[in-house]
Amino acid sequence: MSNRILLFIAALLIVLPLFIVKNTEFAGADTLAEKMIQQISPHYEPWFDVVFEPPSGEVETLLFSLQAALGAGVIGYIIGLYKGRKRNG
Amino acid sequence: MKKPLFWIVSMCATVYILFALSPSAYAMHIMEGFLPWQWALIWWLLFLPFFFIGLRTMTRLMKQKPEVKLLLALATAFTFVLSALKIPSVTGSSSHPTGTGFGALLFGPFVMTVIGTAVLLFQAFLLAHGGLTTLGANAFSMAVVGPFVAYGLFVLCKKCGISLRMSVFLAAMMADLATYVMTSFQLALAFPDVTSGVWGAFLKFASIFAVTQVPLAITEGLFTVVVWNFLHTYSERELDVLEERGVFFK
């Protein structure tokens, strides 16, 4: 199956929930798992706190996009390199 | 050519019909401090042997076959990208894929333990995502269970004569899913339900962690096949080298 079709299906899978599921924020927080823990054992106190927390959502987004950008850059570079190498024999 | 397309499409459709109506949920790694220290310790101890074997395997591989270094970088980059993508799911919440299946198929599961751990460290230190105390548990699910499931399933698929692309797809998808099933299991062990015990708690956590992951796992499987297609077309030389070592990816 060509990559184009595969990527198209992947894109559909990502975009469709936005239209199918209503009344939700698509929150990516771990809040519900936390709530579940508190529901099961109400007296549990987290005993360790995060070392560093991004000061704001914007900074967090920056770091996440940096992670993705670096990765994507490397993937593009390597595949491009292989492609060029193959073309030049 | 047409058969896998049919399977993938029908699988996606089933997932959507099954889960489109479930209540909202969130899914990610286990949060910092959210495992009692005994459990945190147990998972650290279980995880470390895999990590050290992985380090040894990786250094040996780099020494013996330096030409595959680029592929190693590719596998690392793939995990970095995929675990940075928070993708909306049919459960009405977002989660991210893991990207560990791909590398496990290339280099075997142990090498992927090291790479997956590196990604988790990055996220724990800089993004307040996951945590250091829970790193053992998170690494065990994402960097041990995931890669091993991918590798095992791939070997099994090949034995059963399933086509190569389909095997890659299934292996990557199940690795992703297994990671979050394991996370649910870890939480259930640490927080058994008062009335329904570990199993009841497992079902509760699985409804949060694993269900959200189903469409993401399919997406990850698709992405993995895309990159694999590129490799298969352009870098036979490296794949040959890896195959010599018994990592049969071709």
UniProtKB/TrEMBL annotation, chain A:
Keywords from the named record: Cell membrane, Cobalamin biosynthesis, Cobalt, Cobalt transport, Ion transport, Membrane, Transmembrane, Transmembrane helix, Transport
One of the GO biological process terms: cobalamin biosynthetic process
Cellular component annotations (GO), alphabetically ordered: plasma membrane
Location in the cell: Cell membrane
GO molecular function, one term: cobalt ion transmembrane transporter activity
Pathway in which the depicted protein is active: Cofactor biosynthesis; adenosylcobalamin biosynthesis
Record's signal peptide: none
TM spans (from-to): 62-82
A Pfam family this chain is assigned to: CbiN
Oligomeric form and interacting partners: Forms an energy-coupling factor (ECF) transporter complex composed of an ATP-binding protein (A component, CbiO), a transmembrane protein (T component, CbiQ) and 2 possible substrate-capture proteins (S components, CbiM and CbiN) of unknown stoichimetry.
Family: Belongs to the CbiN family.
Described function: Part of the energy-coupling factor (ECF) transporter complex CbiMNOQ involved in cobalt import.
Family matches, as PANTHER family: COBALT TRANSPORT PROTEIN CBIN
Protein name (Swiss-Prot/TrEMBL): Cobalt transport protein CbiN
Native source organism of the sequence: Anoxybacillus tengchongensis
The gene coding this protein: cbiN
TrEMBL record, chain B:
One Pfam entry name: CbiM
TM ranges: 37-58, 102-128, 135-156, 168-190, 202-231
UniProt GO cellular component terms: ATP-binding cassette (ABC) transporter complex
UniProt GO BP: cobalamin biosynthetic process
Assigned keywords, A-Z: Cell membrane, Cobalamin biosynthesis, Cobalt, Cobalt transport, Ion transport, Membrane, Signal, Transmembrane, Transmembrane helix, Transport
Subcellular location: Cell inner membrane; Cell membrane
GO molecular function: cobalt ion transmembrane transporter activity
Membrane disposition: Multi-pass membrane protein
Metabolic or biological pathway: Cofactor biosynthesis; adenosylcobalamin biosynthesis
Protein origin, superkingdom: Bacteria
Subunit relationships: Forms an energy-coupling factor (ECF) transporter complex composed of an ATP-binding protein (A component, CbiO), a transmembrane protein (T component, CbiQ) and 2 possible substrate-capture proteins (S components, CbiM and CbiN) of unknown stoichimetry.
Family: Belongs to the CbiM family.
Protein function: Part of the energy-coupling factor (ECF) transporter complex CbiMNOQ involved in cobalt import.
Record-linked HAMAP family: CbiM
Name of this protein: Cobalt transport protein CbiM
Organism: Anoxybacillus tengchongensis
Gene behind this protein: cbiM
